[in-house]
Design brief:
about 60 residues, Alpha-Beta Plaits, about 30% helix
Length: about 60
């Protein structure tokens, strides 16, 4: 999962539909248009952005 691979914690996912999922399960699928709210080192966040093809860095 993201936690093991990137040493990041996904605290929430803002779905494209407007739904907010807090503390998402590791099985939660990330879909196009979703926004991840993550905690971790900047370098780890950059690696995840590169993998996902970052569109909007906030």
């Amino acid at each position: 999962g993201i936690r093991q691979q990137f040493d990041l914690i996904i605290v929430a996912i803002s779905k494209a539909s407007g739904e907010m999922l807090f503390n998402p399960a590791s099985q939660t699928r990330i879909q196009i248009g979703d926004t991840l709210i993550a905690l971790g080192q900047r370098s780890s966040l950059k690696k995840l952005e590169e993998l996902l093809g970052n569109v909007n860095n906030q």
